[in-house]
Amino acid sequence: MIGTILIIFLGSALHFTYALSGNNPAVGSISPVNESVWEHLKMVFWPSLFWILITMFPLRRAVSNLFSAKAIGTFVMVITIPAVFYSYTALVGESILAIDIATFIFAVIIGQFVSYKLFKKNAIGGSTERIALIALLLLALVFVVFTFYPPHLPIFQDSITGHYGG
Length: 166
What we know:
The protein is mainly α and 166 residues long. The chain has helices spanning 2-20, 25-28, 37-59, 66-92, 97-121, 127-148.
């Protein structure tokens, strides 16, 4: 529950930090630099990674599947947002801010729920944990690289300006 609230709060704050920083590239690495769907995924990814770091030390001995449970939950969040966004905009024909905000909150709740359910199983460990950690680190790297070098695909295109990147 605490993680869900923290991720929603920090993710919401991240929406504004790039502009507030004077478009600082370092801040842009973890904050949305434009109104593309991809950049908004940072709003769930980075706070989720922060929450993993917070929970890692107190839970590392009690839970054998910390990274795999958290990684799967984080990937669920990152996949849910574009899946819901592109589904509803295909039906409605436009983006609706209230639905976008609800999608963000829904994705966090679902991702944290999945993570919690996997924690309770507590049956995975060893190489699966290392793979999960590597997957999270690779996704972090992809978020940083694609901030500065975004592919020219619709998910990376700013819905307001039509540009890519910051």
